[in-house]
């Protein structure tokens, strides 16, 4: 004998086997969960085949309204930076900002470092925010390409050893960059910027503003540090394929970041994408905050064609670089939630 309770988009079946089956309209079978003494005890289980979530660590009498939360407005931000790379806020503060602005899942994706990930994950556990371990690897082939790595095994010693080599390439670049700045009359001491994490051009740019050399970071990049400008240094880097392989070796999902920033046509993009997909690319950041509707649709179409996940994010560094956290929503589809465990 089976009792069925219907609630909006969902059907709840109570069977004689002391279990409950949750079904989303049009989605078919979703999940079986244990039922004991009219109490459902669930431990952070995300049902990715339908548009809802089961509440984390909920333990109460069966109250369908409390247990089920329609996930059509699930806000995620899978691209942001802390002061462990070229952002300005510590990892904990970013998680707090996400919480305040209704973001339920985020990823800290600092440049070439994961030194802030554990801090973000720990804060997320305190506040009930899912924090996906992430990183943004800077690469170069015929152009600058950034590869996001999600769910990488960031605490693995072998990964950190490989990452140290990548970070060292950035250190050597910064030395050359500072030397060029000095030739143009700007005296920058890297040791005064920070002693942990990685230092990026954004950090150096803010230091130039602090010292009064420029009025803002936009002027710094327009005149000195932007690609092709007088103090720009093209460092030795991983290739995009090497970054993809590095991410895969350590259990991560490699995703092409902000494809619009490649500055290539849609036709050229697919030619560029194909070898990366063959190398193991797992996704495209099609929902990047600067993409217009046509670009979002095209990159999403490419992701579907090559069976890649779609991600999105604010690329928040500070209030002048990237979109403020929570201002634009990325809502992951079922495939992305399944692959990333959202």
Label this structure with key terms.
alpha/beta, TIM Barrel, 10 helices, four-stranded antiparallel β-sheet, seven-stranded mixed β-sheet, 3 domains, disordered N terminus, 342 residues, 20% strand
Task: Briefly say what this structure is.
The protein is α/β, with parallel strands linked by helices. The protein has helices at 64-67, 91-100, 117-127, 157-183, 201-210, 217-225, 240-249, 266-279, 293-305, 334-340, and strands at 3-7, 10-14, 19-24, 28-34, 39-42, 52-54, 58-61, 68-70, 76-77, 105-108, 130-140, 144-150, 253-256, 283-284, 309-310. The two termini are 34 Å apart.
Walkthrough of the structure:
This protein folds into three domains: 3-72, no CATH class; 76-163 and 236-340, TIM Barrel, CATH 3.20.20; 166-225, no CATH class. It is built from ten helices and 15 strands. The chain is α/β, with parallel strands linked by helices and 342 residues long. The two termini are 34 Å apart. Helix 2 packs parallel to helix 3 (117-127) and helix 5 (201-210) crosses helix 6 (217-225). Strands 9-10-11-12-13-14-15 form a seven-stranded mixed beta sheet. A four-stranded antiparallel beta sheet has the order 1-2-3-4, with no helix packed on it. It has helices at 64-67, 91-100, 117-127, 157-183, 201-210, 217-225, 240-249, 266-279, 293-305, 334-340, and strands spanning 3-7, 10-14, 19-24, 28-34, 39-42, 52-54, 58-61, 68-70, 76-77, 105-108, 130-140, 144-150, 253-256, 283-284, 309-310.
């Amino acid at each position: 004998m089976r009792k069925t309770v219907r609630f909006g988009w969902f059907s709840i079946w109570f069977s004689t086997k002391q279990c409950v089956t949750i079904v989303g309209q049009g989605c078919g079978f979703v999940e079986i969960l244990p039922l004991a003494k009219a109490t459902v005890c669930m431990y952070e289980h995300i049902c990715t085949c339908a548009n809802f979530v089961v509440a984390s660590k909920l333990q109460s009498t069966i109250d369908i309204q409390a247990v089920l939360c329609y996930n059509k407005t699930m806000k995620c931000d899978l691209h942001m930076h802390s002061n462990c790379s070229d952002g300005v806020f510590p990892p904990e503060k970013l998680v707090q900002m996400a919480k305040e602005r209704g973001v339920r899942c985020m990823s800290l994706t600092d440049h070439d470092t994961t030194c802030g990930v554990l801090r973000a994950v720990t804060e997320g556990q305190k506040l009930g925010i899912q924090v996906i371990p992430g990183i943004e690897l800077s690469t170069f082939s015929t152009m600058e390409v950034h590869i996001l790595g999600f769910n990488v095994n960031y605490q693995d010693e072998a990964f950190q050893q490989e990452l140290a080599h990548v970070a060292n390439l950035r250190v050597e670049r910064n030395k050359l960059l500072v030397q060029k700045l000095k030739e143009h009359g700007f005296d920058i001491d890297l040791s005064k910027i920070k002693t942990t994490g990685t230092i990026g051009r954004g950090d150096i740019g803010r230091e130039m503003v602090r010292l009064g050399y420029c009025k803002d970071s936009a002027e710094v990049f327009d005149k000195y540090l932007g690609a092709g400008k007088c103090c720009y240094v093209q460092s030795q880097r991983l290739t995009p394929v090497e970054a993809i392989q590095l991410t895969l070796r350590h259990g991560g999902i490699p995703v092409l970041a902000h494809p619009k920033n490649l500055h290539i046509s849609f036709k050229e993009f697919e030619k560029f994408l194909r070898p990366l997909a063959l190398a193991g690319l797992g996704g495209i950041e099609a929902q990047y905050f600067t993409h217009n509707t046509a670009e979002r649709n095209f990159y999403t179409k490419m992701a579907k064609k090559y069976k890649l996940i779609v991600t999105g994010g604010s690329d928040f560094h500070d209030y002048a670089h990237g979109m403020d956290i929570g201002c634009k929503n990325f809502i992951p589809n079922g495939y992305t939630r399944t692959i990333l465990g959202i």
